[in-house]
Structure formats: structure tokens, C-alpha cells
């Protein structure tokens, strides 16, 4: 039976042609339908292809009794109720990388426009003047360029900067070293990029971690006459601090395509946009004819993958697994979620290799669903796109991360145990856990035997084992009104290194962490927040 597809928004014909050529597909293009008209016919269709013009909300999903997939030809899914679609068992796919090349080329266009005074000289000549001297520019050749974020866009920008004979440094804590090596760029710290680069361009998502990542302090540490580019997301660079740095002359110039508020209407943004040292565009990074075709092609391919029962690269919710398989694994999915959530917060370097080991009776089953869930949980803390059980392996492959699964029916002390080992340059993190009466327990951290139940707020420490340390920790936390719910201590040998994990009733601020570190001379202190333990 044919898969019936309805297209409700203007989508590039070149993308749809992939589907129209497939004999298994019946496609209807119906643009400009009123809500009631769409509700009346949506029940006949298996797939809906939209852009931003169609709201795929609860009423529509309720009317879509045969719907298998919502395909959004673009990046944003603000117009789709993803949670409700998931509850209805409907897969939602988007096209997060269709504009990758478009965004990379736009970053280069901004940089070259600034360096060669294209915008100013264009206005001058169109105004009737023939002036050349005021528009003397800069060459890129021989300059040191820093790319912050070496994902799909940042990687392309790095390649293009190398073609212009720049020395390219890159910073990305979430990319394997192999990725940088393959691109021929040197992976360094953010501090080094800020300190030594002549040109700095950002290509990270906007997250709590990256918001204001380049602010007053970072701009002050940059070289005199640096050039700064932002074609990623508004707000990664503090706009007020950038305005000050342009006024003081610290920054020779900047070029922005994105703004913390779009359309911009604050005084700061108006001054920044109007600044003579700025080249500006109104979020045009994805606005090319090719990008519009690419997103249409990408979602069409996803629909074909679905038809061919192949993994989906850009599904942003989790389709249901085979019920019988899930029945065997369900008790361990929660354990894997907790272990992943815990160990990824301990890893400070790039991820090169992740190993999932299953020990005991569990090893006789197909553990792939648990492995994929664990991988998705780990990567979700590290990458921009939504990672789930459908696309986790594909995302890991694109990041150059090796994923291995190991099994052993021999067990140390528990009938079933899951171990996650994360390896990066100069760093290895290991965690083991089991279920006790259905509740996750962590039984090993690194080479320490432990036994504790993970809680929402925890503090993990390693220090030289000597009398009085536990008392100091308790005193500091008590003075800040932070209650210790439980404590678990692991030691290698008497008066050797000790590891302690504290379960707390509330979060610990960075100031308290530093106070504890100083008082105990700890070699490692890490506050942990486990969403999975709530």
C-alpha cells in the first residue's frame, strides 16, 4: 500500500522529486489550507511535510489518525508539538544541517566584507564618490584565525580559512581529536584562542554554557586590533561588551549576522548595528536557494529511510522500540540513564571512545537498545542537535567517537552490572552500576569500590586521606545551610587517596565548591546534578 504524504507549505521541488520518483509514495501538495480543511483530510495521510506555515498542534495530531511522521523542512520545530507527537507515536524529523554550507559561506562573506571594506566602499561609490585610500583593507593570508566550535559549520569555516592561508586554531571540548586532525587544525583551549588569534569566529549552539561566552573579560584578553565574527547565534558574544570594545579600539571590527533579540530594538543593539566598525546582516546565514533545496532533500531522504526501515539521522523524538525487546530491557534503561547522566559530568576532555560493558545474566540478551539509550544520554549533554535512540550512533560517528559494547557472563559480586568507560586525551572515567530491588545503585567509580544510590544533588571529591577532612566538609556545608543526606566513602588504602560522594538536599554554589577544595586540598571536586534521579 502506498505511503500517503501531504505537503502543506512551500517546499523546494528538487527535494520533493526524490519522493515523487518512488513508486511507494503518493504525494499531494495542498498549500494555503484553512485549519478546518486540513483537519478534515489529514486522517488520510501517513506523513505531513511542513515548513513554518503549518502548526502541527494537538488538534491536528488528534485528527491525524494514520500519521507516522511529521517532516519539518528546516531547523526549527517551534510549530510542532513534539511531546504530543511522541505520545501519539509520531516521529518528528527536521533538517538541522541543510544550511551548513550556507552558514559557513556567510561567515566568510562577513569576514571578507569587513577586511576589504566592501560595504563602506560600495556605499561611497554608489553615492558618486571615487575614494580609494579610506578603504585600505587587510589580507587574511598569514593571520592566525580561531574557530570556536568545530561542528559541521565550524569545520567548514576552518577549511575555508586554511584555503586563505590562515593558521587555524580551534576550540571544541566536545569533539574528538581525530576531527581536528582530519581538518588540519590545531585543537587548543578557549583561553589560547582569545589570547593569540587575529580573527575569532564563533560556531557553537546557544546554550546556558555558551551564552555570553565572549564577554568583557574575554574581549580584554584579546590582541589589539582583533576581528570578531558571529554568524552562529545571537547572545554568544555579549553585545554590550562588544560595543565597548569597538569604541575603545581594542577590536578593529566585527561582523554579526545574528542578534540576541530579532528583530533588534534595544539601544545597545541599535548602536552596535549602526557602528562604523561593524558589518551587519539580518540573520541571512540559511538564506540561500541551495539551503532551501537541501532541507527539502534532507527531510525527503528521512522519509525514504523510514520506508526502507533504516536509521533516521534527524529524528528529534524517540519512536517506539519492539515491545518484546523492551520488556527484557526496561529495568535497565533507567539504570543506564542514571549512569550516563553521572559519568558525563565527570568528563572534562574531548570524547574519543565510549565502552559499554554488560556483566552477568544481562550479557546473554541483546543489549543494543540499552547501549543506544546510554549513548544518546551521554551525547545529549554535549551536542547541539537532539540526540535520541534513533540517531545516537550516527551522531557519534560524525564526531569521530568510537563506540564499543563488551559482554561477560562472569561477574564480580552482582548478578547484573553495567559499566560505562569514557576515554579522552589523558583522561579515563569509569562508572559501574547495578539494580537493587529495582533501584539504581552505583558500585564502582574509577578503581574505587563504592555503594550508593544516586540523588539529584551530589558532591564528588578525591583527596589525600587524613583525619578531620570529613568534619571540615560538614562544617563548611553546614555553615551554608546545605544538608548532607548521606555520605559514601571509598579508599584505596589507609591514609592513601580517598573518594567521597555526598548526597545533598540542595545544590552547591561554585563559591562553596572552592571553599571545600581549599579546606581539604582536594585533587578533584565536582558538584553533580542528576536530572534522572529527580
UniProtKB/TrEMBL annotation:
It catalyses: (2R)-3-phosphoglycerate + NAD(+) = 3-phosphooxypyruvate + NADH + H(+); (R)-2-hydroxyglutarate + NAD(+) = 2-oxoglutarate + NADH + H(+). The keyword Amino-acid biosynthesis applies. Coiled coil: none annotated. Keywords: Amino-acid biosynthesis, NAD, Oxidoreductase, Serine biosynthesis. InterPro entries: ACT-like_dom_sf, ACT_dom, ASB_dom_sf, D-isomer_2_OHA_DH_cat_dom, D-isomer_DH_CS, D-isomer_DH_CS1, D-isomer_DH_NAD-bd, NAD(P)-bd_dom_sf. Residues 458-530 form the ACT domain. It is an enzyme of class 1 (oxidoreductase). Its EC number is 1.1.1.95. Pathway: Amino-acid biosynthesis; L-serine biosynthesis; L-serine from 3-phospho-D-glycerate: step 1/3. Belongs to the D-isomer specific 2-hydroxyacid dehydrogenase family. Catalyzes the reversible oxidation of 3-phospho-D-glycerate to 3-phosphonooxypyruvate, the first step of the phosphorylated L-serine biosynthesis pathway. Also catalyzes the reversible oxidation of 2-hydroxyglutarate to 2-oxoglutarate. This is D-3-phosphoglycerate dehydrogenase. It comes from Geoanaerobacter pelophilus. The lineage of its organism: Bacteria, Pseudomonadati, Thermodesulfobacteriota, Desulfuromonadia, Geobacterales.
Amino acid at each position: 500500500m502506498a505511503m500517503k504524504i501531504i505537503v502543506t507549505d512551500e517546499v523546494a521541488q528538487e527535494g520533493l522529486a526524490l519522493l515523487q520518483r518512488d513508486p511507494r509514495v503518493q504525494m499531494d501538495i495542498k498549500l494555503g489550507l484553512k485549519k478546518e480543511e486540513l483537519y478534515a483530510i489529514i486522517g488520510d495521510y501517513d506523513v505531513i511535510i511542513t515548513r513554518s506555515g503549518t502548526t502541527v498542534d494537538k488538534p491536528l495530531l488528534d485528527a491525524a489518525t494514520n500519521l507516522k511522521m511529521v517532516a519539518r523542512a528546516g531547523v526549527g520545530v517551534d510549530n510542532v508539538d513534539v511531546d504530543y507527537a511522541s505520545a501519539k507515536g509520531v516521529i518528528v524529523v527536521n533538517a538541522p544541517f541543510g544550511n551548513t554550507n550556507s552558514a559557513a559561506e556567510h561567515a566568510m562573506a562577513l569576514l571578507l566584507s569587513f577586511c576589504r571594506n566592501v560595504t563602506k566602499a560600495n556605499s561611497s561609490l554608489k553615492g558618486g564618490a571615487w575614494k580609494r585610500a579610506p578603504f585600505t583593507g587587510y589580507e587574511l593570508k598569514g593571520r592566525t584565525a580561531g574557530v570556536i566550535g568545530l561542528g559541521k559549520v565550524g569545520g567548514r569555516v576552518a577549511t575555508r580559512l586554511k584555503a586563505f592561508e590562515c593558521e587555524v586554531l580551534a576550540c571544541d571540548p566536545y569533539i574528538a581529536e581525530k576531527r581536528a586532525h582530519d581538518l588540519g587544525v590545531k585543537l587548543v583551549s578557549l583561553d589560547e584562542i582569545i589570547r593569540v588569534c587575529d580573527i575569532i569566529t564563533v560556531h557553537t549552539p546557544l546554550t546556558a554554557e555558551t551564552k555570553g561566552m565572549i564577554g568583557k573579560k574575554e574581549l580584554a584578553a584579546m590582541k589589539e586590533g582583533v576581528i570578531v565574527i558571529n554568524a552562529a547565534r545571537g547572545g554568544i558574544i555579549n553585545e554590550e561588551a562588544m560595543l565597548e570594545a569597538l569604541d575603545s579600539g581594542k577590536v578593529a571590527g566585527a561582523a554579526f549576522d545574528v542578534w540576541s533579540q530579532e528583530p533588534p530594538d534595544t539601544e545597545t543593539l541599535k548602536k552596535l548595528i549602526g557602528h562604523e566598525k561593524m558589518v551587519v546582516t539580518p540573520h541571512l546565514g540559511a538564506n540561500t536557494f541551495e539551503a532551501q533545496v537541501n532541507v527539502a532533500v534532507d527531510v525527503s531522504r528521512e522519509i525514504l529511510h523510514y520506508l526502507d526501515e533504516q536509521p533516521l539521522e534527524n529524528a528529534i523524538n524517540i519512536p517506539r522500540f519492539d515491545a518484546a525487546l523492551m520488556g527484557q530491557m526496561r529495568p535497565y534503561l533507567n539504570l543506564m540513564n542514571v549512569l550516563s547522566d553521572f559519568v558525563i559530568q565527570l568528563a572534562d576532555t574531548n570524547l574519543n571512545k565510549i565502552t559499554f560493558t554488560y556483566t552477568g545474566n544481562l550479557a546473554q540478551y541483546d543489549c543494543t537498545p540499552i547501549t543506544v539509550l546510554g549513548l544518546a544520554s551521554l551525547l545529549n549533554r554535549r551536542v547541539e542537535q537532539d540526540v535520541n535512540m534513533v540517531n545516537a550512533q550516527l551522531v557519534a560517528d560524525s564526531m569521530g567517537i568510537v563506540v564499543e559494547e563488551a559482554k561477560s557472563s562472569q561477574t564480580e559480586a552482582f548478578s547484573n552490572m553495567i559499566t560505562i568507560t569514557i576515554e579522552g586525551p589523558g583522561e579515563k572515567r569509569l562508572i559501574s552500576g547495578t539494580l537493587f530491588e529495582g533501584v539504581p545503585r552505583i558500585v564502582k567509580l574509577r578503581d574505587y569500590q563504592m555503594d550508593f544510590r544516586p540523588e539529584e544533588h551530589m558532591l564528588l571529591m578525591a583527596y589525600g586521606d587524613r583525619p578531620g577532612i570529613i568534619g571540615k566538609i560538614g562544617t563548611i556545608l553546614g555553615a551554608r545551610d546545605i544538608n548532607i543526606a548521606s555520605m559514601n566513602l571509598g579508599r584505596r588504602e589507609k591514609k592513601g587517596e580517598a573518594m567521597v560522594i555526598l548526597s545533598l538536599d540542595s545544590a552547591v554554589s561554585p563559591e562553596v565548591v572552592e571553599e571545600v577544595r581549599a579546606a581539604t586540598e582536594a585533587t578533584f571536586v565536582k558538584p553533580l546534578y542528576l536530572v534522572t534521579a529527580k
